[in-house]
Amino acid sequence: MFLITQYPKSHFIQELKLLFVLALPMAIASLAQVGSGLADTMMAGRLGADDLAAVGLGSSIFATTFITLLGIPAALSPILSQLSGAKRWDDLRYEAQQGINLSLMIGIVAAIVLVIVAKPLSNVFQLNPYTIKTLTLFLYGISLGLPATLIYRALQSYSVALNRTSAMMWICLAGLGLNIILNYALIYGHWGFPKLGGAGCGFAGAAAFWFNAIALWGYLSLSPYFKPFALNKNWALPNWKTIKEQLRLGLPVSFSFFLEVSLFSFIAIFIADFGEIYVAAQQVVLAISSVLYMIPNTLGIAVGVRVGQSLGKRNPKRAYFIAGVGISTGLIYAVMSAILLMIFRHYLLQQFTQDTMVIAIGEKILLLAAIYQLSDATQVIASGALRGYKITFQPMVIHALSFWLMGLGVGYFLAFPMGLKLYGFWIALNFALATAAIALTVYLIYIGRYYQKIHSGSLKE
Questions:
Q1: pLDDT digits (tens, 9 = 90+) for 269-308
Q2: Which residues of 420-432 are buried (b: 16+ CB within 10 A; e: fewer)?
Q3: Residue 60: Cβ within 10 Å count
Q4: Is the pLDDT at 458 greater than 60, yes or no?
Q5: Is the Cα torsion angle 249, 255, 259, 260 positive or negative in sign?
């Protein structure tokens, strides 16, 4: 399976190094972005529960919007990777420019929509007038960063396709520092800035997003390594035929992302009936598991890039091998993560809360979270590999059936009619992710073998 045994051990090690060179800086960059959210929570929390609630709700609304739209620039990655493998540099530059154009347009439209719905959406929540006002202002501020977040992701796809990711790590770390400084100025009204309370986090976040996008664009334009690829040369106006093809790949990815993020959003809504203790335990467990998820997630992106590059070189055998290296590496990481979760779950929970009831519930949920590490890592890496083949629709269908039908549907049945409460949802999540992992892996094996049948290729690396 995946031809792993048909290559010398040195090839496995070589490929593993290449994957981690791409994936690790992206994982650290993602941690920096998580750190921005943590800084928002801690700094706004000093003002009281009202500001903290506004920032928490606003961040959730923005994250749902952003993650859903993220599929559009994410689909640019396999296009650019295959062109990079084929060394079609002019086509690669053109597709990257079109991807940036598309990201900018979608970002502007999404920002306008979020500004329009900010006040009506805030009024939906049963909150006091101050919290509603703060939430609305937060959404106004953070919406300004939507175009920048999507442009940054398009630039990231370009950078990764050309095998360079270290700069984005340093840029995101600098962006985290900027976000904290601007939070301090805008939340508390220092250095002549207006005192906006929790709403200041929204404007500070938007400024950090624009810093990240501009800094990465500047690096890609000025770095000696990227100068021969000339990203800014003969900038192309939007071409609707090209954009339509990018949307064909990107919209299913966006819907897959939406299915995943909305799954946890709906679970959070349903478990509110069980009381604050269960809600708190759910939030803490998600915070821990989301950090562990970053490695397989970025590894999946790297695998997709390497698969695309090999296909661009007309070497489907190598692409299939790379997919196998990625999944086997993800499984090793998942086993280690599961063991660490089981051993240190009590200690980890204590870093977030001292409430004994929350810790007791959280320990049981973390055991279930430990079990699904293997299937979660497998499904996200298999999805990334399939994107390298420019296949996005079938994974979307698999995610819809597994996440919503099993994860949410079966979870609701176990939680309420069966009386398992929050545990019912997490039991269902294990079955849902296992189903997705098996289905995506089987489909990846089929696609990998199919490409080897229809394309001739030999080892070229």
A1: 787 677 768 877 877 787 788 888 889 999 999 999 999 9
A2: bbbbbbbbbbbbb
A3: 14
A4: no
A5: positive
Which structure tokens are listed for 233?
């040369």
Nearest to 305 by CA among 293, 317, 322, 325: 322
Question: What pLDDT was estimated at residue 457?
Answer: 45
| Weakest-pLDDT range from 49-63, 140-154, 341-355, 425-439 | 49-63
* CA angle, 265 then 267 then 120, to 5°: 40
Amino acid identity of residue 174, one-letter, is A
Instruction: Round to whole Å and give the CA distance between 398 and 74.
Output: 18
Q: What sign does the dihedral 133-136-137-138 (CA atoms) show?
A: positive
